[in-house]
Write the structure tokens for this entry.
Amino acid sequence: MKPPRHPWLLTAIAVVITAAFLLPVYWMAKTSLTPPDRILAPTPQWVPYPVTGENYSTALGYEGLTRALFNSLVISTGVVALTMLLGVPLAYALARVRMRGSGSMVLALLVAQLPPAIVLAAPLFILERRAGLDDTYVGLIAADTTLTLPFAVIVLRPVLRAVSAELEEAALVDGCGLPGVVLRVVLPLTVPGLVATAGLSFLLGWGEFLFGLTLAEEPGVQPVTVLLNAFVGRHGTAWGALMATATLISIPVVCVFALFQRFIVGGLTVGSVRG
Amino acid sequence: MTFLALFLAYPLFYNLRTSVHDVRLSQLLGGSWQFNGLDNYRAVLDDPAFWHSVRLSVVFTLGSLVFQFSIGFALALLFARPFPLGGLLRSLLLVAWLLPPVVSGTLFRWLLDAESGAYNALLEAVGLGSLSHDWLTDPSTSLAGVVFANIWVGVPFNMLLLLVGLHTIDPQLYEAAAIDGAGPWQRFRRITLPLMRPVSVTVLLLGLIYTFKVFDTVFVMTGGGPVDSTRVLSLYVYEVFFRFFRFGQGAAAGLLLLVVPLLAGVFYVRRLRREETTGGAT
């Protein structure tokens, strides 16, 4: 498209739209920094004044918040590890190795993204309870990975395919075994794609809620998303502490996105279906 | 693949099995399950609350889709033009989509709060104070409230995919049309819209699949209430299964919930296939 006549006018329009769109996020951060007694003032303040960390200390004072944050960290790290461990070999096999049924496997992966999480949560609840996996990190990590794995493979397949086949063949000729080729040639060349996939899996694991709600009754393993929801009921009017907690949950998301944003945007457009 | 079979396919199969048995809380861990054929399905289909949820899901999904798509399209058109800071602003918009749904749900619960919610304050500030309202606790507006939040969540994703689509249109087409004397509106109608049709269908299908199964946002915002006014299908399944512990019926309802995404998925996959064979880009 040809350059517009007034590029800065477009910038101005876009800034206004973006600001209006991000108002909720601003409001969250603002509320979390406003003194509790001013939050419910009849005319809401647009700027937090005086800025206070009180809501954060209240939130962190709640029993279980630090524990829940830790749980979420363990779970989403586990999800990333399991997703990559299973996803990379599978994606590589689907990208490179010619085998029967790889077409229908890709199809199966697309279909795997269709079921609503609730349809999985119900049988997983019974199954994990029978297997004694409910209320364990392993149970939650495995459940969350059902959401991330199909997505990861679909994103990784084109990434791995982009590595030149000649390069791999050359390495094979030079006496590298197949695992060696993957580890020494393919993976180093695809670090950005791998990192983006890991980042996205982390985000999905971090934000996951339903499995945490249904598969973890024990607060010792509950992720912070479940705790946040419990707060809404229990401390319904303590908006300051609530928004502080919500902000705390959002910070890692924004960080991960800021670090890997270009790769993530690329990954998203390939992966398409989410959740 | 084995993992997926174990943790995805098997549970789904297991759900099918549960759905034809009479399973209550007491039989959860041990005990024999009584086979009861299609009784669970019949019970669900006879339940007026189920049909109420179906209606709510349809309204929720259509309402979300229409606005997500049109707003997303408008933003994509804006961001498709090169201008300073465009990339940065576009990335900022995506943050909304990446926030955990529980966070955005909580956030909108606060924003739409009656007494000190920001949106009511905003309405008052622009002189529309008479419109200010207790959005989420009034059954007549609660659905609109959750749809509103869901639109907010979905717009960036729509924008992103449509933007990719816009970039695939050959700029020469616009130049040629401009030389032939076509105005901006005509160029939009004659070039952009027809060429964007395949992408649009894809985006809408994905939106349908995604919106139909939304759980977190609604659950956190209203929990299905007030008076069932926002109890969309996924929440219905949740309640039957996890609150009333009617596992057989819950499983049956869950499988019924699967119908719409599955149909949309079939269409989507067929489109992908066709595009792969004709070499078109999505």
